[in-house]
Every structure is written in C-alpha cells, then in structure tokens.
From TrEMBL:
This is Elongation factor 4. One of its GO terms (cellular component) is plasma membrane. GO terms for biological process: positive regulation of translation. GO terms for molecular function: GTP binding; GTPase activity; guanosine tetraphosphate binding; ribosome binding; translation elongation factor activity. It is an enzyme of class 3 (hydrolase). The gene is lepA.
C-alpha cells in the first residue's frame, strides 16, 4: 500500500498538491437504485470543499437532462477531491455509478478504474438484487469493499439486520459505517475510512506511460473529451500519443481533472484519473478500454480492457425526415462514445429507408437513448418495435441471429427457432411471495430455488427466488409489475443463460393494407393475438380520420388475427336539400361514395401514423 514512488509535486491554483500514488484513492459508490448514491456523493463533495455552499445543488453529478427528469443516474461521473487527514493532503477520485440493471456496463467500466468500492445499503430496505450484482462485479475486479449503511435516521431502519445481510449475503466482514447522506451525519468518517482502508493505486511514474481509456463524451466547445486512468508514467500537453488497439495517433492539447468543475493541469501522473483533450475528430478511433501510450513508445501489448456487454434488446432507429440521416448518424456516434454498451449497425428497410439497427441492455436503456436523441441533438426519430435476438436454424444447417421479421427466411426453410433465456434473482418480502410467484409464472418463469434471508425487522422475512425466464417476457414490463406486486420493495437482476427452442412467430401490422415495419415483430405465439389486438386498438384511436374507412390489421403470415377500423369523416352532402324527390339525395350520396373510393385509391399507402401511436404500442407490447 505504501509503494515507494519519487516525490512529484505540481501546482494547482498556486497550491502545492502531492501527486504520489500513496496519497491517491480511487473508489466507486455502488448500490441498488434509490439507495442514496448520488446524495452521498453530494455530501462527500461538500465535505471536501469541491463546491461552495452557493454552488451546491441536489444530485450535482447527474448532469444529463434525462437524469434530472427521471431521478436516476444514467452516466457514471468522476470527480477529484482533496481531503486533509493528519496534516496530509489526499486526492480522492470518486465515481458515482448508476443503480439500474440496464446501466450495469457503466458500473463495470467504473470499477475497472478503481482500487476500492463503497457498498451502500439502504438501512430501511436492506441488501437488494442489484447490490449483490454490483458486489460480484467488484469481486471480479478484486476491489476492496467498504460497506456503508445509509438512511439510518429513518424510523424503519434496522442497522443490525442489514449488517447480518452484508456479512451473510455479500460476504463482507468489515463493520459497516452508519450514515445519513441526506443530513450529512457520519460522512466524514466515511471519507477517513476510505483513506485508511482502500489501497492506493499501483503504478510507477518512472516507467513508460500507459493509460486506460475509461470513458468519453462529446463537448460542443472542446470536442471529444476522454476520461483516462494513468497506470504508469504521465501525460502532458503537446505530447504525441497512440491508441494501441485502433492505431490512432494524436497530440494532447489539454489535461486536467473535475472537482467537479473542470480544472486544467500541467500533467496527469501515475494513479490519477482525469480528462484529456487531443483534437480527436474521428469518433471511431476511440474505443473504451483501449490502452494509450506515447507515440514513440516501445509498448505493444495492451492492458486488459473492458469486457464488451452483449445487448439484449434490439430495435431500428430511422430519421423521421430522410434528410436527417447524416445528423442521426453523427448523433448516434457521439452517444456511442459516451455509452460503450450501445450497439450501432447500418440497416435499410424499403418502407422506412436508411437507418440504424441498435442494441440496448434493456428497455429503460432504449427509452433513455431515445430521450437523449431528442433533448441533446434535437432530432426526431422513428423506432421499430423492440425485440430480442432470436436464433434461426435453417434446414440446411445455416444459423441466423435475427430480431425483426423483415429479415426472416421463408417458413418452409426454417427447421426451428430458439429464443434467449436468462437467470434471475428476485428478492421479495415473505408477504408478497404469492403475488411474485404468480407474476413469474405469467412470464413463463421456471423456479430453480427459494432461500430465506434475515428481514429488516422481526415481522418481515425476505426471500431470494432463483428463476429462469425467456428474455422477451422480462425486458418490457417485469420490473414495473414486480414493484406493483410488492408495493415497491421487490428487486431483481439477471444474466444471460443461453438459448432454448420456442414457438416464435412473425406478427405483421397492416394499415390500409400496407405493412408497418416499425410495429411488426417476432413474438411468442401465445402472446401474438394479445399484441395484435393492443396494436390495432391503439392505432385506431391515434390515426387521424380520413374521408374513407381505414382498416388496421394484425396478421401471422396470411392469417388475420385482429382487426379494427378507423371510422371515416362524413360530410353531409344532403344538407342543402329541402324536400323534393328522394332520388336527388340518393344521387348526391352515390356521387359522394364514388368520390371516397377514388380518394382512397389516390391515398393508398399514404396514411400517416403518428410517432406517439407507435410509442404507445411499444409500451404495451406485453
């Protein structure tokens, strides 16, 4: 822990700061969603003087509009702070991570830049599913884990039961610190414990420079900004650098840290986590997890990078206006730099034109990406129905991975179809066990085990259910229904578990006889009729009425499984007739009928479907 490193002193705002490895602490805060990670980060920033009282605001590290609106952390954020303990100044690099399972890749990348992790547990809720998943990720990175109990000031808090859960479920023997992130109680003890217990980074400033690309984002003023962790050596402005995996060469313009305000430095040295700007214009040259070395370096072997996450939800994204294709392409590339788990591939559909096939870690990840495209890049998009990736085995032995009916081979050429399954851990209170099991069975779940764990109080017992589910039934609304069935106290996390043969069919949605590719989907046969009826009803209520009836249908192959009709507008052409022969009225109605028929022929395939209708169908897919 106290490796002998040459003293290296630099000046920041005329203050001498020691940048020795042994005085640096890199740590992340990991926890389940809503356990208080961002609030604890705020208090740590306050105690370290990162921002003045006037500059502080709630969830200061949640910088995206979507984070503020939804009240969740989407992007991991790093901030470098100074804290003095026993007359020695330390630099602590804090990384606030997301808690939702859809953003687990952010957590994994953040942990790779740390030597320790603060495991935060809500003292009123105890250990939750995502807490356990994040701890397993920290174990994989061989990090020191420091448990902290938050919200101990609540009447429902039970520190003793939570401590037992931390020891028995997470295997952490260290006595957890008790804090209230909201009031600031115990936060200074947490900072001091971080300095005393979390190891300092291992590295040598005298060795050849090696750095890991941890994160990146696009700044409209500075261009591409990269977040890097220096393993050995140092990085300075005007140095030429090279990225080993992509072979790209650049010259550094600026380096520095976030406090959380951006502060430029003369140098980033071994053990530090900071930003680097190098006039990077081609975003494809930046690969998260890549190793950065100096341009004339003899190092050819890259450091262990990040394990790439495999997307589980796929959909097509197309510009609402075809002239916005290049804008959409640039916007997605910028998001890809910022979000390493986002998969982007070019695709073309006859009815929608050129667009992109995108892969996401979950439906929330998809919704957040759509919202960021709208808010950050001001671009309107059409998104096809989300789907998982199915495995198609053809009779000739060829294997295809597809997620949209437009790519399906002919039915007589398919031998069988397999769908992805996952292993899930569901944690619920005993009183909600019945509701949870019913929900799991509705989602075609197969129970593998059920274990009791200590509850937060004597009246409650918590249970861990181990289930296997088809992924397509989980990604859309399982989390919401679980929260409803357990009054908000249930939680779950999952991981891939291969493929199994299943009865999958392609459902097509037709409006006025024209197939709507954005809503066509691959789906389990027993759910096909329900999806078709929902889609038809929503489209019937949202499509603008014309002067002729519009048929809205759902079909499997040539078989119609659901139908609705958008009623026509009717102009009263007989309003001007006052008495007289009835044949006059009949003649006017016949003329109107012929006019409507002609209009329908002229308007064939031109019925517009509002994006709101498509979004409503997708939300009610299951």
């Amino acid at each position: 822990m106290d490796k002998k490193i040459n003293n290296k002193e630099k000046t920041i705002n005329n203050k001498e700061v020691v940048f020795q490895n042994k005085y640096i602490r890199n740590f992340a805060i990991i926890a389940h969603i809503d356990h208080g990670k961002s609030t604890l980060s705020d208090r740590i920033i306050e105690k370290c003087g990162g921002l003045s009282e006037r500059e502080m605001k709630s969830q200061v590290l949640d910088s995206l509009d979507v984070e503020k609106e939804r009240g969740i952390t989407v992007k991991a954020q790093c901030v470098s702070l100074k804290y003095t303990l026993d007359n020695q100044e330390y630099i602590i690099n804090l990384i606030d991570t997301p808690g939702h399972v859809d953003f687990s890749y952010e957590v994994k990348r953040s942990l790779a830049a740390c030597e320790g992790a603060v495991v935060l547990v809500d003292a009123s809720q105890g250990v939750q599913a995502q807490t356990m998943a994040n701890v397993y990720n920290a174990i994989d990175e061989d990090l020191f884990m420091m448990p902290v109990l938050n919200k101990v000031d609540l009447p429902s808090a039970d520190a003793e039961a939570c401590t037992d859960q931390i020891r028995n479920l997470l295997g952490i023997e260290m006595e957890p610190l008790q804090v209230s992130a909201k009031t600031g109680k115990g936060v200074e003890k947490v900072i001091e414990s971080i300095i005393e217990n979390i190891p300092s980074p291992i590295g040598d400033i005298n060795k050849e420079t090696r750095a890991v690309l941890v994160d990146g984002w696009y700044d409209k003023y500075a261009g591409v900004v990269l977040l890097v962790k220096i393993i050995d050596g140092s990085l300075r402005p005007k140095q030429g650098i090279k990225m080993i995996n992509t072979g790209s060469n650049y010259t550094i313009e600026n380096v520095g840290i976030f406090t959380p305000k951006r502060v430029e430095l003369k140098e980033l040295t071994s053990g530090m986590v900071g930003f680097m700007i190098a006039n990077i214009r081609d975003l494809s040259d930046c690969k998260l997890g890549d190793t950065i070395v100096l341009k004339d370096s003899t190092i050819t072997e890259s450091l262990p990078g990040f394990k790439e996450m495999r997307p589980v939800v796929f959909c097509g994204i197309y510009p609402a206006d075809s002239s916005d294709y290049e804008t959409l392409k640039a916007s997605l590339e910028k998001l890809k730099l910022n979000d390493g788990s986002l998969l982007i591939e070019k695709i073309n559909m006859p009815s929608l034109g050129s667009g992109f096939r995108c892969g996401f870690l979950g439906l929330l990840h998809l919704e957040v990406t759509q919202q960021r495209l709208d808010q950050e890049f001001d671009i309107n998009v059409i998104m096809t129905s989300p789907s998982v990736e199915y495995k198609i085995i053809k009779k000739d032995g060829e294997v295809l991975f597809l997620n949209h009916p437009s790519e399906m081979p002919e039915v007589n050429k398919i031998d069988f179809i397999e769908e992805p399954w996952i292993k899930a851990s569901v944690i619920v209170d005993e009183e909600f066990l019945g509701n949870t099991i019913v929900l799991c069975e509705e989602k075609r779940g197969r129970q593998e085990s059920m274990e009791y764990m200590s509850g937060i109080n004597e009246a409650s017992k918590r249970i861990i259910l181990k289930y296997r589910f088809p992924l397509s039934d989980i990604i859309f609304d399982f989390n919401d229904k679980l929260k409803s069935a357990t009054k908000g106290y249930g939680s779950f996390e999952y991981e891939d578990d291969g493929y199994e043969v299943s009865n999958i069919v392609a459902v097509s949605i037709l409006v006025d006889g024209i197939k709507v590719d954005a809503l066509s989907t691959l789906i389990y046969r027993d759910h096909a009729e329900s999806y078709g009826r929902n889609a038809c009803e929503i489209l019937r209520d949202n499509i603008k009425r014309h002067l002729f009836p519009i048929a809205v249908q759902a079909a499997i192959g040539g078989k119609i499984i659901a139908r609705e009709t958008v009623k026509p507008l009717r102009k009263d052409v007989t309003a001007k007739c006052y008495g007289g022969d009835a044949t006059r009225k009949r003649k006017l109605l016949e003329k109107q009928k012929k006019g409507k028929k002609k209009m329908k022929e002229l308007m064939a395939g031109k019925v517009s479907i509002p994006q709101k209708a498509i979004t409503n169908v997708l939300k009610r897919k299951n």
